[in-house]
Amino acid sequence: MPKIYLYNTLTRQKEIFKPIKKGVVGLYTCGPTVYNFAHIGNLRTYLFEDFLKRTLEYNSYRVKHIMNVTDVGHLTGDMDMGEDKMEAGAKREGKTAWEIADFYETAFKKDLLALNITSPSQYCRVTDNIPEQIALINKLEKGGFTYKTSDGLYFDTAKIKNYNKLSHLPLATLKEGARVEKNPEKKNPTDFALWKFSPVGKNRQMEWQSPWGIGFPGWHIECSAISLKYLSKNLDIHCGGADHINIHHTNEIAQSEAATGKKFFNYWLHGAFLNITGGKKMAKSADNFLTIDNALLKKGLSPLAYRFAACQVHYRKPMEYSEASLKQAQQGLQKLWEQTAALGNKTGKVNSEFKAKFLEAINNDLNLPKALAVLAAVLKAKLKPEDKLATILDFDRVLGFNLHAEARELKAAKSVNTAELFPAAIANKVGLRNEARRRHDWVAADKLRGEIETAGYLVEDTATGSVIKKK
Ligand code: AMP
Ligand code: ZN
């Protein structure tokens, strides 16, 4: 198998990737907290993880991919204080926490589909894995790693060595950072809740019996319990956004290794943020909350333009959001679809020299900007069109630009009446509608059909794609 180099946050080095079991990779990616829509910053992290997964598959690994869905226990404050985000969402929308979870989990899956992000082998809801979390906390209690306070059962971080092995932060700095939210009952500022009690005299919507009292799991325990349950023999790669390094992933490692006595995951990969102008991190606050819907669809841009834009920046470098750069990405992608359509229908042989270059780029810690340059070089090279087509479609297994389907749609639209050129605005709407249909978003597809028809064109859906004609 070719060598894959990945930057491991644990060692702060690029390392040659070796799975625990030959040919199989266990991949755990921290999933969404389903109390609101995902913003395109969150989605940048899921895109990076998708490129990683596709790269592993391109290298012929079988990937067991597990993603949790946080539907309880993630509090508004990072240090185990504040309100449960799910209950806050329920209050905001006048629904139950369960309804909120259902709604936003569905919305999240729709976003992934729009971005052509492959589904995990399994989604695991936190509320479906409560006994496993209680069992893990039990183990920690038996091992002497816990203590009780008035609001919950806590993990004592002073009981383990190397608490900071992932963050590489001096303990003094961690203490400093934790001062923002003080909990006088904690023995050490870095200690964290394993189980929180329901407030006295108040019923929460989501709460369970436990050996310590009625309550709900702390945020970090879910990822330990779920990954140990589903990937017990394949604890290879664990991913998330860079904000997870110092707290969430650090705590996952601390409690998992304390409970099992064994190393938790071997490789820890983190994606850098999507920032809005001025280097500010995108967050779920009102003024700064860009979604697929408001940042792309409502601007007439394809969600895949964002995928294309994410490919242009290495995953460990911050990415700056701007509407202009998304528009540029849309133009670049549209051109690529057109170039693919122009290569015809016949697929020849994948060019081995270009394939080797592409593989070298992606296997070097997912160097996708370089992989895109290899793709551009293929299109410029003196190769037979059918071999070019075979080569770029092969690359698209990793890039996920839907080259095959989009080129087919373009050809179908043009073949109806080649003499007629549709205005760009109409062609754009047809493209967006095709995408909406592929992600089964019938509401958006029907809305776009209406807009195309109002502009004087007819849409016909055929077996090979939709075609447009002047009325
Ligand atoms: P959450 O739904 O808040 O649990 O976050 C889901 C994922 O998005 C996590 O892996 C976060 O680290 C990641 N994330 C949050 N904000 C950003 C951002 N601005 N850019 C990239 N990733 C982010
Ligand atoms: Zn997690």
Amino-to-carboxy terminus distance: 56 Å
Structure annotation, total helices: 16
Which CATH architecture of the largest domain would you pick? 3-Layer(aba) Sandwich
- Oligomeric state of this protein: single chain
Question: What does the model show?
Answer:
By secondary structure, the chain is α/β, with parallel strands linked by helices. The protein folds into three domains: 5-271, Rossmann fold (3-Layer(aba) Sandwich); 275-414, Isoleucyl-tRNA Synthetase, Domain 1; 415-471, no CATH class. It has helices spanning 40-58, 85-93, 97-114, 130-142, 171-177, 221-230, 245-260, 292-295, 303-311, 323-341, 352-363, 368-380, 385-399, 403-416, 424-438, 442-454; strands at 5-8, 13-16, 24-29, 62-69, 122-125, 146-148, 152-155, 192-197, 215-217, 237-241, 267-271, 274-276, 280-281, 319-320, 457-462, 465-470. The protein has a five-stranded parallel β-sheet, sandwiched between helices. A four-stranded antiparallel β-sheet has the order 6-7-8-9, covered by helices on one side. The protein is globular. The mean pLDDT is 91. Bound molecules: adenosine monophosphate and zinc ion. Residues 30, 32-33, 41-42, 44-45, 240-241, 243-244, 271, 273-274, 281-282 line the site of adenosine monophosphate (AMP).
